[in-house]
């Protein structure tokens, strides 16, 4: 078959949209196929916190690169993307968590990420609505917040203006070795490289990849401008949010530009039903009320769920897809998925790594930690 494009991207969530823009800018003839609406998957369900995270050197490198790319882009973003450089406040409840503040600030300093350790009084100057008696926190002023679905649409619109082809309402049924996709209507398309950017659905097209869906709930309030000023996250988040064996809930609240508060977050494995679970939202609100007692006077408007695409090492899969039978790379089939709770942040870094590799540019950061081959023969490791 004759290739219709250099790159055919399946999925127009924020990752697919970012990859499309980066590919077309690099001079690659690019086609995007999306079954539903732009930014309607996990992207529409996500929180939009642009955050440098330090679970592993690979995670810190990718989140740092990505936050720098967002920062550079901020002046081009339209109002609808709601880029807010509000920063993050990691909240420490006690002395043990203050020790974690110190450790985290050292890791950030080593990576060149600015942060500020704050003690009790200063914490309340920044965030007067936090409950009294907390020990302090770590303020990371460079973190920001966006509204993910409009960001995805903007990235894709920019890519369209620069010449990509976008096929909406087309579901890819199958992806085959040699860069071939089969659409639901039976049509076949071929590209030099097919990039599967279908989020948590990627295992449908490329079975056996090391990834599982991880359900999350979010709650949004009515408008209360100024109630909080930073994205607030408990330091216990690090202990709680990433246990891979049980349902977890952590205090994680975001100030929206609209004045609304977006309350997170929960993580569940094995929950494939997208319905809201009251037992989970009750735990989330209990946790949030513990930190922000005045929340009890605020009106919650809406609750929803979404699915994160979780890999065993919390690092995405960017590069040639492993063949499920042989473990060897599939010819002409790449992955850009597995971003768990960081895909809004890391969409831009993912696009950069993917494109650098496709065109043979010097890498912005080493790409090996994100290469899917790291799990090719270790499927039993999936938690
Ligand atoms: C509750 C929650 C909170 C989160 N908070 C944050 C946060 O604060 N910060 C952050 O950085 N990240 C956050 N995330 C993670 C982030 O939302 C995801 O990592 C990111 O949206 C993944 O984007 P994606 O483009 O890979 O996938 P998706 O957004 O799911 O997009 C995949 C696209 O592929 C399309 N598609 C699927 N199958 C096919 C097919 N067969 N053919 C054609 N098209 C197909 C879908 O319609 C969809 O549009 C959160 C996620 C959740 C669930």
Descriptive report:
The protein is α/β, with parallel strands linked by helices. It has helices at residues 14-25, 42-45, 57-73, 95-111, 120-126, 148-161, 202-205, 236-240, 278-291, 343-359, and strands at 5-10, 30-34, 49-50, 88-92, 116-119, 136-140, 144-145, 165-168, 172-176, 180-183, 188-196, 212-223, 231-234, 248-255, 260-269, 300-310, 317-322, 329-337. It folds into two domains: 5-46 and 148-211 and 313-381, FAD/NAD(P)-binding domain (3-Layer(bba) Sandwich); 88-141 and 212-309, 2-Layer Sandwich (D-Amino Acid Oxidase, Chain A, domain 2). It is built from ten helices and 18 strands. Strands 1, 2, 8, 9, 10, 11, 17 and 18 form an eight-stranded mixed β-sheet that branches. An eight-stranded mixed β-sheet has the order 5-6-4-13-14-15-12-16. A two-stranded antiparallel ribbon has the order 3-7. Helix 1 runs parallel beside helix 6, helix 1 (14-25) packs parallel to helix 10 (343-359) and helix 3 (57-73) crosses helix 10. The two termini are 39 Å apart. The site of flavin-adenine dinucleotide has 40 residues, from helix 1, strand 2, helix 2, strand 12 and strand 16.
Q: What keywords describe this structure?
A:
eight-stranded mixed sheet; 2 domains; FAD/NAD(P)-binding domain; single chain; binds flavin-adenine dinucleotide; 10 helices; D-Amino Acid Oxidase, Chain A, domain 2; alpha/beta; 383 residues
How do you describe this structure in short?
This protein has helices spanning 14-25, 42-45, 57-73, 95-111, 120-126, 148-161, 202-205, 236-240, 278-291, 343-359, and strands at 5-10, 30-34, 49-50, 88-92, 116-119, 136-140, 144-145, 165-168, 172-176, 180-183, 188-196, 212-223, 231-234, 248-255, 260-269, 300-310, 317-322, 329-337. The chain has 383 residues and is of the alpha/beta class. It binds flavin-adenine dinucleotide.
């Amino acid at each position: 078959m004759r290739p219709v494009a250099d790159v055919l991207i399946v999925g127009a969530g924020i990752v697919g949209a970012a990859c499309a823009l980066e590919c077309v800018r690099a001079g690659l003839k690019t086609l995007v196929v999306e079954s539903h609406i732009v930014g309607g998957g996990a992207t529409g369900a996500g929180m939009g916190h642009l955050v440098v995270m330090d679970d592993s050197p690979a995670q810190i490198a990718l989140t740092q690169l990505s936050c720098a790319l967002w920062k550079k882009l901020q002046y081009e973003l339209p109002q609808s993307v709601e880029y807010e450089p509000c920063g993050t406040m990691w909240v420490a409840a006690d002395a043990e968590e203050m020790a974690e503040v110190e450790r985290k600030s050292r890791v950030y300093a080593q990576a060149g990420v600015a942060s500020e350790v704050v003690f009790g009084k200063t914490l309340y100057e920044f965030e007067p609505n936090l409950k009294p008696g907390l020990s302090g926190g770590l303020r990371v002023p460079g973190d920001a917040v966006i509204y993910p679905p409009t960001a995805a649409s903007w990235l894709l619109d920019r890519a369209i203006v620069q010449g990509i082809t976008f096929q909406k309402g087309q579901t890819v049924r199958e992806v085959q070795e040699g860069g071939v996709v089969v659409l639901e209507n039976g049509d076949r398309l071929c590209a030099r490289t097919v990039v599967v950017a279908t989020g948590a659905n990627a295992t449908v097209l490329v079975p056996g990849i090391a990834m599982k869906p991880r359900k999350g709930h979010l709650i949004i309030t009515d408008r209360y401008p100024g109630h909080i000023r930073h994205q607030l996250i408990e330091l216990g988040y690090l202990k709680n949010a990433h246990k891979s064996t049980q349902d977890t809930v952590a205090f994680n609240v975001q100030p929206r530009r609209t004045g609304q508060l977006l309350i997170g977050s929960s993580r569940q494995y094995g929950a494939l039903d997208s319905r809201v679970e009251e037992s989970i939202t009750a735990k989330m609100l209990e946790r949030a009320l513990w930190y922000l007692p005045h929340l009890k006077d605020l009106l919650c408007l809406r609750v929803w769920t979404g699915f994160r695409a979780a890999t065993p090492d919390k690092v995405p899969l960017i590069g040639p897809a492993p063949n499920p039978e042989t473990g060897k790379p599939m010819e002409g089939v790449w992955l850009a998925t597995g971003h768990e709770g960081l895909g809004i942040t890391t969409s831009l870094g993912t696009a950069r790594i993917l494109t650098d590799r496709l065109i043979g540019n010097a890498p912005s950061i080493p790409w090996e930690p994100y290469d899917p081959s790291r799990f090719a023969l270790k499927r039993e490791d999936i938690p």
